[in-house]
Amino acid sequence: MLEISELRKRFAGGPGAPGGKVALDGISFTVRPGEMFGFVGANGAGKTTTMRIVMGVLQADSGSVSWQGRPLGYDDRQRFGYMPEERGLYQKMRVAEQIEYFGRLHGLSAPAAKKATDDLLERLGLTERRGDAVQALSLGNQQRVQLAVALVHDPEVLILDEPFSGLDPIAVDALATALQERCRGGVPVIFSSHQLELVERLCDSVGIVSAGRMVASGTVADLRAAESGTLRVVVRDPAPGWADGLPGTVSVSGSRQVLLTDEGDDQEILRRAMKAGHVEHFGVEQPTLTEIFKEAVA
């Protein structure tokens, strides 16, 4: 289990900003084995700073990072897979050569690094590009190589900063499948993303960070259940004025009228709707992660 507890970080200020900038203000969360954790927030919220502290790239002013119940150390981080926001590939090195090289850096033997590289090239759809220089690849294929570099040594934890940024849907699916396979093998996965629909689809749990603070966290289902739902009623060919006096808003879509409301007597609304016309839909809809995010950071 990876535990991040009360991380705080302030960056020194420059001229005109003597107090500096508070990047993290008590960030805490836990990621369990086989759990995919989505880390979401606006630019500058603190996601990348948190990941860099976990990987030892930055040092926190206070707080702790623990792995398997003990303080996280250098040897532990060697067994982690990390995909930084600023991609770190050697542009003139060939694809397969590069992945093998990083495998060797993580302690794999030459045969083991080659086998792991071949497996990943096939899994990520890069076999035909194995001999190409990285600089000759599209952005999407460079992303796949970067993920392969993070996966080549069979890491115990995966930490990925915006891994899906700029990818087409096919590349997104390839990367998502690779991550889900690692999760099923018991690997904790943390990734940040601005694509909230993707986070909602893939993640077991989510942390929403704003101005260096965790403003909401939990499973997607729990976060949605904590918010009041919206009653949505769709009536086809309704009598004019059927919703007059009811709370909420009514929109028109062809021969249908749609009532959205967060209040009122749902049984009275249903009776009015049934009397007015053919009710095609009547139910409470929980908010999406995008709506929860907007509410949490407002």
Instruction: Count the E strands.
Output: 14
Separate helix tally: 10
Order of helices and strands: EEEHEEHEHHHEHEHEEHEEEHEH
Radius of gyration from CA coordinates: 24 Å
In this structure, how is the largest beta sheet organized? 6 strands, mixed
Helix fraction?
25-40%
Instruction: Give the CATH level 1 class of the largest domain.
Output: Alpha Beta
What is the second-level CATH architecture of the largest domain?
3-Layer(aba) Sandwich
Beta-strand portion reads 25-35%
Low-confidence parts, pLDDT < 50 over ≥5 residues?
none
Domain ABC transporter: 2-236
Family: Belongs to the ABC transporter superfamily.
Membrane topology: Peripheral membrane protein
Pfam families: ABC_tran, DrrA1-3_C
Element layout with pairings:
Elements: E1 2-11, E2 21-31, E3 36-40, H1 47-54, E4 62-67, E5 70-71, H2 74-78, E6 80-83, H3 95-105, H4 110-123, H5 139-151, E7 157-161, H6 169-184, E8 189-192, H7 196-202, E9 205-210, E10 213-219, H8 220-226, E11 230-236, E12 249-253, E13 256-261, H9 266-276, E14 278-285, H10 289-297
Key phrases:
six-stranded mixed sheet, Alpha-Beta Plaits, ABC transporter ATP-binding protein, Rossmann fold, 2 domains, 14 strands, 298 residues, alpha/beta
Question: What is the gist of this entry?
Answer:
This protein is α/β, with parallel strands linked by helices and 298 residues long. The protein has helices spanning 47-54, 74-78, 95-105, 110-123, 139-151, 169-184, 196-202, 220-226, 266-276, 289-297, and strands at residues 2-11, 21-31, 36-40, 62-67, 70-71, 80-83, 157-161, 189-192, 205-210, 213-219, 230-236, 249-253, 256-261, 278-285.
